[in-house]
Amino acid sequence: MLLVLLLTVTCARERMPDVRIPSVSLSILTEGPITIADPIDIALNIYHRKKDEVEFPGESTDFLPFSLYEHMVKPARLRGDLVKTMVIYTVTLYDTGEFSFGPLQVQVGNEILSTEKLDITVLSVIPKNDPNPTLKDITPPYRPKMKRIMFLIIPLTLIGVAVAFYLLRKLIQKRPQEIPDLVFGERKIDPYEYSITELKALTKDQFKHSRDVKSIYSKISIVLRYFIGSTLDFSALTMTTNEIKRHLGKQRFSNVPLPRILNILKRSDMVKFAKENPHRERVDNDITESIEIVEKVHDTYSTNREASTDDV
Question: Does the pLDDT at position 306 exceed 60?
């Protein structure tokens, strides 16, 4: 009986590998060529003492570019207080080529150990006549090819979407509403009387400093647009300054001081939208000049209307 026990101990000692304690290593368990998407079994061998706590990688992100399926732990007692903890990882890879698994870091007690990296070749197919294939014998998976017609269809589709979006935006935009003629009670207000009254009121308010520059130019712009549009019969209140310029330029109103009108309207736009702040003298001059423009256009076109009425 004693002889049997002695032989058992001797055999156990012979099976004990000659390794440093603690130590770690990697080995591949899967035999034969490995192809794309095959499960690959890899063993992490940890040699340590029984009292040592062991921590090893177990998250999928620790093995990139490999994907982790699962892992299992197999502890084995060697002799005395020496222990071998084997962690078997099952991983796979969805690509072909030469890849490195690891190195992995393992904490044994207070020590942090690192394994050597494990080189793994992943093939696309296994050649029939070569038991030890190399990558040069293998054709990698074909990359998906885009048909030539798609290079035409995709840009045309994008252009079509852009055009549809533009047209839809145009349709849902609110159309500028016609601004009705000013009416006082049952009587329609005369554009000339209204414009002169408002401009002269601006002069009084300005000297009293009861309005800021932005309010003054906003009123000047509305009065000039209303008067010019009513007198020359077009919707100036719904137009931008550039649109008014194009309209009056096409109609060739010879007796309309177009440059003076546009200068004041442009300055009003700059004050309202670009926060320009003209000097008080400039403001005074623009109000005075607006009054002169209204009177000049009124005198010219009221005379023309009277002459047309007499002819009839």
Answer: no
